[in-house]
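Customer escalation, tier 2.

The customer says the design service returned an amino acid string that "doesn't look like it belongs to this structure." They asked us to rerun it and document both sides in this ticket. The original structure tokens are below, unchanged.
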């Protein structure tokens, strides 16, 4: 439970957007978005197709720069050059489709782009460390893999999502963005992922969950942000709303 201990007593990692705008040519994808999310909470971004959810996520994760406005982490203004830059500040994104590369082994996927290298002159991959760590880190998420040299394509959809989450946490994510993590999954696989997302709260992660599934979002979420046509039209704490109310607000 190393990552658990590492994060458990950590201070809050607060993310704050202040009057963020994003234009694509003449398309105004986001207008005047101001919102705050904190650690140990699941913050849900809800909205219809084309509302601006992915654009918002892409701004937080360093894919896009806002046209106007600012992002702050713990009261410090940040401006990311690219997603790697954001990752180094502790912001990771798990995308539904790009979670893993199926034709690479499970452990290669776990360490993709951040391979542990042996300190010999050949600088070879430290396979023992990589395989052991992969087994150990997945076990923390209730996934028992005997052979991490297996192709990642043989993992179930839910296991792939959890692999991506486990990897992000192992590499120090404090703010974890999940973009529709269960939309491609069946009920059983989806439940597996939901359980692990819920556990992220105990690990003091600031979770930002983009979802179309209102019932699931309501069950998991602590805070809800409703986006329509690029505007943040409402935000609720869980105690202030219900799944029904979220649905009515979205459909209004
Ligand atoms: N690179 C781009 N160039 C031009 N317009 C864009 C670009 N990316 C997004 N948009 C536009 O911005 C608006 C918001 O798109 P966005 O992808 O953020 O929506 P979304 O809420 O994620 O939708 P979905 O639920 O379908 O994923 C849309 O009108 C979209 O067409
Ligand atoms: Mg989207």
């Amino acid at each position: 439970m190393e990552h658990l201990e590492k994060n458990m007593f950590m201070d809050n990692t607060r993310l704050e957007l202040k009057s963020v705008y994003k234009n694509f040519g003449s398309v105004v994808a986001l207008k005047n978005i101001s919102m705050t999310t904190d650690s140990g909470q699941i913050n849900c971004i809800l909205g219809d197709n084309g509302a601006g959810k992915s654009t918002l996520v892409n701004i937080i994760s360093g894919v896009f720069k806002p046209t106007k406005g600012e992002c702050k982490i713990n009261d410090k203004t940040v401006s990311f050059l690219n997603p790697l830059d954001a990752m180094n500040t502790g912001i990771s994104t798990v995308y539904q489709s790009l979670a893993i590369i199926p034709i690479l082994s499970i452990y290669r996927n776990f360490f993709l782009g951040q391979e542990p290298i042996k300190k010999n002159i050949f600088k070879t991959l430290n396979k023992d460390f990589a395989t052991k760590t992969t087994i150990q880190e997945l076990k923390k998420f209730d996934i028992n893999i005997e052979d991490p040299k297996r192709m990642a394509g043989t993992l179930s959809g839910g296991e792939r999502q959890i692999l991506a989450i486990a990897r992000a946490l192992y590499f120090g994510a404090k703010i974890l963005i999940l973009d529709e993590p269960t939309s491609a999954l069946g009920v059983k696989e989806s439940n597996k992922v939901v359980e692990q997302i819920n556990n992220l709260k105990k690990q003091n992660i600031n979770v930002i969950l983009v979802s179309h599934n209102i019932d699931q979002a309501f069950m998991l979420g602590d805070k809800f942000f409703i986006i329509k046509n690029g505007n943040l039209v409402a935000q609720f704490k869980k105690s202030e709303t219900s799944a029904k109310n979220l649905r009515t607000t979205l459909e209004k």
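Tier 2 assessment: The sequence is consistent with the input. The mean pLDDT is 92. The pocket of adenosine-5'-triphosphate (ligand 1) is lined by residues 24, 27, 29, 47, 49-55 (CB under 6 Å). Sent an explanation to the customer and offered a walkthrough call.
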